[in-house]
Amino acid sequence: MLLFIRLSWKWTKRGIKAATACVLLGMIALLGTLAYAIMLGPPSLSTDQNTIYYQSDGEVMKGHDGGEDRYWVSLESMPDELVEATLAIEDHRFYNHFGFDLKRIASAALTDIKAMEMVEGASTITQQYARNLYLTHEKTWTRKLKEAFYAMRLEIFYEKDEILEGYLNTIYYGHGAYGIESASRYFFNKHADELTLAEATMLAGVPKGPSYYSPLADLENAETRQERILSRMNDLEYITSSEKNEAVTASLDYYDHSAEEAQAVAPYFQDEVVREAARVLDMDVEEVESGGFHIYTTLNPDHQAELEKAVDEEFSKAGEIETAAVIMDNETGAVTAMKGGRDYGSTTFNRVTQAKRMVGSTIKPFLYYSALKNGYTPLTMIESKPTSFQMDDGNAYSPSNYNNYYADDEITMAQAIALSDNIYAVTTNVDLGPKKLVDTLHDFGFKGDYPAVPSLALGTASISLYDMVEGYSRLASGSTAGQKHTITKITDQREKVLYEYEPVSSKDKDREPIDPKAAFSVAHMLTGMFDPALNGYMSVTGSSIADQLTRMYGGKSGTTDTDSWMIGFSPQYVMGVWSGYDDNRKITVQRDHQYSKELWANSMEKIHEPLPVSAFAPPADLKGVYINPETGKLSGPACPEERLVYMDKKDVPKETCKENEDSDINDIEEEINNDPWYKNVVDWFW
Description:
The chain is α+β, with helices and mostly antiparallel strands. The chain has four domains: 91 residues, Alpha-Beta Complex (Penicillin-binding protein 2a (Domain 2)), CATH 3.90.1310; 197 residues, Biosynthetic peptidoglycan transglycosylase-like (Penicillin binding protein transpeptidase fold, Orthogonal Bundle), CATH 1.10.3810.10; 171 residues, 3-Layer(aba) Sandwich (Beta-lactamase); 29 residues, no CATH class. Strand 3 and strand 4 form a beta hairpin. The radius of gyration is 34 Å and the shape is elongated. The C terminus is likely disordered. GO terms for molecular function: glycosyltransferase activity. It holds the Pfam family Transgly. Its EC number is 2.4.-.-. It comes from Halobacillus campisalis.
């Protein structure tokens, strides 16, 4: 027992010494840090946090948000309600701590330790101000330590009122508005000193998450947070219960920016740039907008201007139908122009990137690519007639052609894609097995969970226009190296490169590389939608705009009950257009189905005017041959129509259509000789 007491006392003394040493070392480290902070002197309070966007020509892009000008107002000029609301929700012990709220830090630390990651913050106003001035918004322990050090320096060299004034003049309120004066003008079109209690408490809640708590982005979330702020102010006795209730029920009149937004350069494009930057930098949208970055984009201002003009002209008398369009570089996937709707002022919903619609026949090129990879050729013949397909569940699937027109004979793949024959497409899909089309879509980068059913060949899947155009760019280029993007580079204010676009590796283990021969063969067949030589039981699907085109393009249209699509490409650019109603209303007027084609033809012609004519260059081991579209045989002197197709040399037919015609004549002569009626008629004639 005595030995146990002696050992316990021995270890107790050692523990006390160790604890004392730790405390001393901590104090020495703290004093050293404090001395170092003092030695560095006061940190600069200057800030320049506007994120700047550049067009592809290097010019600064005109933003579509307000608040580009910064305003500085003194703390005395700010209404007490605004200051008290901010303190209540952000840091009510601000005037009683030295930059750190130990109670909040302890609570947040326990939460973070339990989660084994940074999930909850305990930043005071001083720390937030330090972060906004000097640091990024990444959630790491390193950044938190730097934030604490800068907060200490601010507290050492500046008065509390100076810190609070700086914070309220630089914090980000969303929509490009930095500081309370800019926010007040943007949201309410008034000076900060004119804000009411209801307006002040609404604004005080926004900086926590501008994309989530802005009343212009989500009114319900904003009002919920405003009510919480008013309750906190009441608890802290900043306001009375009656003042709280009056503010909660007050009606707020927000300033209408639609006229300003109408003058912006590519606002839908800019929204996508911010979202893309948030993804590549792993930040929130508001952190990108307030981060002071330099973002270099792919926007071609000439392309955007032509697209905007074409939409205005085409849809000036179009009623309620909506549209979306995007232009992309074939080789790189760089987006050169984007229009997410007819009027950004009416809705910021981007129908290029955010809407998924049934794609109709625009899916067929990927089906025929799969067919070429599995033994088909551009001259494979399949009968076009009313057909029922037996499903695995025992039911019959009976697709139909447009207006129930059929060849009632065999047609080639080249003609089937030009006429958009549905029977040919479903027959091919069933013959290959629908899973092959699903696999092909995945190989081209589509990430959806698509049903492997016969009707997939007719575009029953819902896919965004953005993804469809990227798929066509890969088909036209024969490579998956290029991926859709709006940003080429992002730097910080010191021009340090934080991100730079690089083509993806073509050796993706999750998908097969694109076969350039099959891709080119399909891409060239898609030029047939404008070639009258492929007219058959109906005209080619691009006949209505073919006379507007001055160079060779490939393309495919698509029509469903509710959607109208046109996606087409030159050797340089691919453009996709969708038209329809946001509420999935059926398109009942035939003219409404023409808008997409007209907009596509108008825009593509305009953006190609300054470019030299360029041809589609086939891979070296593909052979181009002229065939007779009706028979699928080689063209000959007596053939009425001919069409160039590209295929493997081994698949080139040996017969010409002339040989086929000779055979038909011989059959007629034999029939005449063997039929007495024919013979009597001939004898009488002679």
